[in-house]
């Protein structure tokens, strides 16, 4: 147990990320009290039943009153509305952060809603699962994962350092990034891959009507990974694509060009093109493992111990 970092933390939206934050905060004793609010009464009742939050409130305003840190953990498309709802109840000097998967849009819609005497520090934990809701969280979600802090202009150093410490004590490695770069990097590493998985599973579903249950029965590992990703929350991902439009379209444009080139190589029998392409991509995977960046890989421990 370490000393609390904030006296009171308010979690707005009680889904996968907020519930994981709550359990991680409790694991390390990082707050005096954690209050919580979710829009749906059913979610609030579930939270009360499972002991998620020290106090579950029936309004966002009640949850944020007296809070030193307010975490917006709702779908990206709801961030602006929630910020407007809580703005007048925020304690002067409090920090407001979010965990949204897109940063430029959140900064544009949340920033203007907040009073000048609170510190707004956007953040994004690069950790999640395909599950959602108050019962899906667990304390270890952020262990050894990255959390990106995206400080806005003139961000005060003390609140920034305090938020960094919170994420570190919840188990994450912390880095800072500017919003534009964040949205492009995430379009490559997360948003476009999710769209591709959604598409692939959709294609297989169309095919299933022809081949009956063979697609499910003979699913190999690659396709199973796609189905896991494509089971992610529809509201959350709809909002990600609508709010990170520019970067996602840029990456999908490049993806389509490369896909066409590979399609052509297959049609004309250009094995060299395919072989060279797959050799290049294999090297990228090996680079990730050697850098000790893939905590899920079976050889992750080995790569870390070797200090590579
Ligand atoms: N699921 C994931 O793997 C990751 C999600 N994120 C981001 O974290 C945020 C939360 O995502 P999850 O926890 O996965 O979502 P979730 O779907 O598990 O939970 C969202 C919660 O927000 C509540 N909510 C929705 N609209 C609301 C409103 N207007 N006012 C109050 N509460 C409202 C819902 O009732 C629900 O309790 C999103 O912005 C998402 O982009 C970030 C990293 C990973
Ligand atoms: O479950 C997965 O594979 C993920 O990619 C989790 C994830 C989803 C959204 C984010 O903004 C960050 C991480």
TrEMBL record:
E.C. designation(s): 1.3.1.12
Protein's UniProt keywords contain Amino-acid biosynthesis: yes
The keyword Chaperone is assigned to this record: no
Reaction(s) catalysed by this chain's protein: prephenate + NAD(+) = 3-(4-hydroxyphenyl)pyruvate + CO2 + NADH
Biological or metabolic pathway of the protein: Amino-acid biosynthesis; L-tyrosine biosynthesis; (4-hydroxyphenyl)pyruvate from prephenate (NAD(+) route): step 1/1
GO MF term list: NAD+ binding; prephenate dehydrogenase (NAD+) activity; prephenate dehydrogenase (NADP+) activity
Signal peptide: none
Entry's Gene Ontology BP terms: tyrosine biosynthetic process
InterPro entries reported in the protein's UniProt record: 6-PGluconate_DH-like_C_sf, NAD(P)-bd_dom_sf, PDH_C, PDH_N, Preph/Arog_dehydrog, Prephen_DH
UniProt domain Prephenate/arogenate dehydrogenase: residue ranges: 7-296
Keywords, alphabetical: Amino-acid biosynthesis, Aromatic amino acid biosynthesis, NAD, Oxidoreductase, Tyrosine biosynthesis
Gene3D superfamilies given in the database record: 6-phosphogluconate dehydrogenase C-terminal like domain, NAD(P)-binding Rossmann-like Domain
NCBIfam families: PRK07502.1
Stated family: Belongs to the prephenate/arogenate dehydrogenase family.
UniProt-listed PANTHER family: PREPHENATE DEHYDROGENASE (PTHR21363), PREPHENATE DEHYDROGENASE [NADP(+)] (PTHR21363:SF0)
The protein's name: prephenate dehydrogenase
Organism from which the protein derives: Antarcticimicrobium sediminis
